[in-house]
Amino acid sequence: MRLVSIVNCESGMVLAKTIYHESGRKLLGEGFELSDKAINRLEEQGITHLYIKDGITDDIFVEDAIPLEVRREAVITIHTHFEAIQDGQKGAIFHSRMIKDFKRILDLLISEIKGTKSVMNLLSHIQVRDHYVFSHSLNVTLYTLAVATKRGFNDKQLYEIGLGGLLHDIGKMMIPSEILHKPGRLTDEEFDEIKKHSEYGFELLRKQVDIPLLSAHCALQHHEKWNGKGYPRGLAGEQIHPYARTMAVGDVFDALTTHRVYRRAMLPHEAMEIIYADTNTHFEQGVVELFRRTIAIYPVGVTVKLNSGETAVVVGYNEHSPSRPLVRVIKDPAGNPLASHYELDLLKDLSCMIIECDAIL
Ligand SMILES: [Fe+2]
Q1: Which of 17, 195, 201, 358 has the most crowded CB, counting CB atoms within 10 A?
Q2: Statement to judge: residues 238 and 181 lie in one domain
Q3: CB 248 within 8 A of CB 164
Q4: Cα(15) to centroid(ligand 1), Å
C-alpha cells in the first residue's frame, strides 16, 4: 500500500485500508474505489492522507503503532469524561469512576508504547475525527509517553506525565464554545480567553485528591516556552517542569500534523522543520532530539523523490535515524517505471537524499 495525500488522490484509486469514524463506525471499506465525490467528502471531513493499492506497492503493509480498538476506547473515555466536566464547569469534580477509567486507559497506552520497539508512525491512524480536543489529548499523550520512555522515566513518572497528557487541555472545556470552535481567525481578546485554558485546567485538577499535583502542572505549564516567552507565567528553561518541557513538542507536532479549518495538515517532515527552527526558543533541545529519534518523519508507504531524480516509496525505518529510511526505487529520473525495483538504505548510501516527500507517483 502507498500513502497519498488527499490533494494528490484521484478518482479510480482503490483504498488499501478501511476508513473509520473515531467512534468506531466504518465509513469506507478496504477495496473501495474512490470517486471525485468521495474524495471531496473525505477532505471536508478532515481526512488528509489515504492508503491506496496501486499494484506496485501491494506487498508493503503499514502496521498501526497503537491498535485501533485501544485508540477508540481512549478517545471515547476522554470524550465522555471531558463532557461531564464541561457540564459541571468550575465546580466539577472527578468522581472515582473517572479516575479509574483514565488509569485503565493509561495502563493500556503505556504497555503499548513500551512494547513498540520501532519508530512510531501515528499517521497510520487515518480516521474521521469528531472533536479536535479529544483526539489531540490522546495523540499528545502518545507522543509524550514515547519520548518520556526514551528519557528513562520510571513507571510512576510515566503515570504522572501520561495523566497530565490526557488532561492537559481539559481547561478548554471551560472556554465558550463559540470561541473554541470559531472557524476564522481569533481576535486578540478571544485568543487571550483561549490562553486561560491552562490555568482553568490547573485550578480544576489541583483540587482533585486522586490526581498527582505534577499532572496538574502539565496543564498549567504546557504552553510555557524555553525562552520564557510562553504563558501563563513566562517560566524559562529549567524553571519549567521536565514533564511540561517533554509535552510541549508533541503538543505542537500534533497540532501541525492535524487538519484545521484555517490551514491544511502538514506531513511529519514539514512539522519537524518548524520544530527544529523553534529549538532553544520554544523547545528544549534534548526533547527535540529524542522526539526526532522516536517519531517516523517519513512514514512507511509515502512516496519520495531522491536527489538522483528517481522516485521511491519508503518501506522501513532505521531505528536511530528516522530521517534516513529504507526506500524502494520504482521510477527512473525520467519518470519511467523500472522493470525491476531495487531497495536502498539511506543510512548506508549517504550520498542519497530525499528532496521531496509525498511526491506524485
Ligand atoms: Fe493547550
Answers
A1: 201
A2: yes
A3: no
A4: 34
